[in-house]
Specification:
The protein has helices at 8-16, 24-37, 132-144, and strands spanning 44-51, 57-65, 69-74, 82-86, 91-99, 111-118, 123-129, 148-154. It is an alpha+beta fold and 155 residues long. The strands form two sheets. A four-stranded antiparallel beta sheet has the order 1-2-3-4. Strands 7-6-5-8 form a four-stranded mixed beta sheet, with helices on one face. It is globular, with a radius of gyration of 15 Å.
């Protein structure tokens, strides 16, 4: 199926993390809302997810990033709740936690969690498991770290 807003590179990402076809229609609807209501266009999308103690995956939120702003669709599977905030030069705190991840190549047991906060109080939490850790690493490197203020702290 061809989507109006869900670009091929986004479909490749969704396939790479093993959820191709599961939420494509819902993600396309959020991308349409973003295109119609906000100023920017996402360069990347990210599905924040984690593995529960019973081994199933929980999909917590959908994120859109470009160099100037980030957008989070909380609980995107069940609700239409969208937040947008500018991030350009505004990140002042970053926390990184990892498990079985070397920041090079994720394995099935890899886990990565980042939390960031902006000067205005915006806080974001992104989680990844398996191959999705590599995508989260790239987002941190391209969109979060370069937007940190001079006085920012990394934990």
């Amino acid at each position: 199926m061809k989507y109006q807003f869900l670009k091929d590179k986004f479909l490749v990402y969704l396939g790479d993390i093993g959820i191709s076809g599961m939420f494509d229609k819902k993600i396309d609807a959020f991308l349409e809302l973003y295109a119609n209501q906000f100023s920017g266009q996402p360069e990347v999308i990210f599905v924040s997810e984690y593995v529960t103690p019973d081994g199933s995956r929980e999909y917590a939120s959908l994120w859109f990033f470009n160099r100037e702003e980030c957008v989070e669709a909380r609980n995107f599977i069940r609700s239409d709740d969208l937040d947008m905030a500018p991030i350009e030069g505004r990140i002042e705190y970053l926390r990184v936690q990892k498990e079985a991840y070397d920041f090079k190549n994720a394995t099935g047991s890899s886990r990565l969690y980042i939390r960031f906060k902006s000067a205005s109080g915006l806080a974001g939490e992104l989680r990844a498991s398996g191959k999705n850790c590599d995508y989260l690493r790239n987002i941190m490197a391209k969109y979060i770290r370069p937007n940190m203020r001079q006085t920012a702290s990394v934990v």
